[in-house]
Amino acid sequence: MVAHKEKSYGEKRKKASEFKTRAEYLDHELTIMKFRRWRVNLPFRDYGIEIEDVVPALAATIGKVVMVTAMVAAFADQYALTPAFIAENVRLEMLIAGAVFVMLFSAFLNPNSNLAGTHGPMIPLIPIVAAAGGHPLALGILIGLFGLILAITKGGSKLMNLTGIGVRGGLLIYLGAVGLIGQIGKLGKWATAGGVSTVSFVVISVTVLVYAYLARIQKRWLAIPLCSAIAGIIAFTMGADFSFSTPPGLPHFDPMWWWGTNTGWKMGLPNLGHFIAVIPFAILAVAMWSPDYLGHRVFQELNYPKEAKAVLMDVDDTMMVASIRQAIGSCLGGGNIASSWGTYMIPAAIAKRPIPGGAVLTGIFCVVAGILGYPMDLAMWEPVLRVALIVGVFLPLLEAGMQMVSNHKDSQSAGTCIFACAFVNPVFGWSAAMLLDNLGLIGDTDRAKTLNWNEKLIIPGIMFIVCVVSLGLVGQLPGIPGIF
């Protein structure tokens, strides 16, 4: 008996005009795609590129400029490097991310892997890395190695599956609320320092109204470009200072220039002592990946139709791509520390778009921004930057977390998670709440009864110990001095 060959994406595809609403068309697109894992996937053969893909691509590019600049600037402050070094290194990272990793992996080889972005929670730890005698190249190589180990053993997906609904919701609520308050506060300080304190109030007020209206008409995926543009126009009209300062150009591409003793980082190549010094920081960076990746996957699950499981982000594959990108990017001279790209995934999920279509556009936008230079200035301008992060990342995180906490049992787990996050940090809060939730000490006791002892105690317990020990070694536990 001859088996029927499954229809391809092109054969299943229908015109948007055949559906009553645009949302129905986008849902249908998500349900008919099935990507080829670690094989060549091509636009319009395996997936489409729609107008909705432009928004997450713009959000990702803005987020990339902002986060990489913050990361490289943190390194530069510790190693006495100049602003010219920061601009040059950010250009390099934009081209590495855009021309190579975004399109090669997430658009063509494995569209189930999210784009490899920047590991924001590691930025405050950079001064401690430097004080411990760490070397950026040694740190990047070890993060890549440990990340590959976790990806190959499928530890990332296992930890995601062991995280209960209440713990997920609590983690998202904490990240969203703290980030939202932080961004509003930073915008206010910038406006006050620039002598235009009223700008902050007006920009945030208008942003709230526009975002609420977009949510009402179910067009939240437009929030980042629209709100950022309005914020920039308002701020400039009210007298806020802005000027373009980064001219077009290309960075150095020779790795030995970047890792020379008198050029680039001016540190030379790392020795064994450098690798030993960064081990706890590399372990902590990889340990913090799981809650980060979990939050991004949740947005797809909340916004995609239930039948669209084939296009969901694969946590282990994303970890593998981030690990490869980290090791190679560091060897080429980049100062980025990689993670799942939240400023891409969150708006893409809200816009009901799969990973690869927007990945193609993100790669192009990153290359253009890196070469031209001027778009980098605009993306880093405070009103544009802060509003983009508020409406594109932190408000959606807060909303998604609140949606997940739907009953008393979930609220108990969420509350414990939020408390533990506030006590130390999100990686501690997630690991502690996951352990307590799986043991049945908080949250849904019926769920705990369905787990075996590996899932209840062994795996969550090991994760908790790894997190606590890593945090303790680098001085991130309250009241306990670090060894490094």
UniProtKB/TrEMBL annotation:
The keyword Cytoplasm does not apply. InterPro entries: DUF3360. It comes from the Bacteria. The chain crosses the membrane at residues 54-80, 92-109, 129-153, 165-184, 190-214, 221-240, 272-290, 355-372, 384-402, 414-436, 456-474. Keywords: Membrane, Transmembrane, Transmembrane helix. This is DUF3360 family protein. The keyword ATP-binding does not apply.
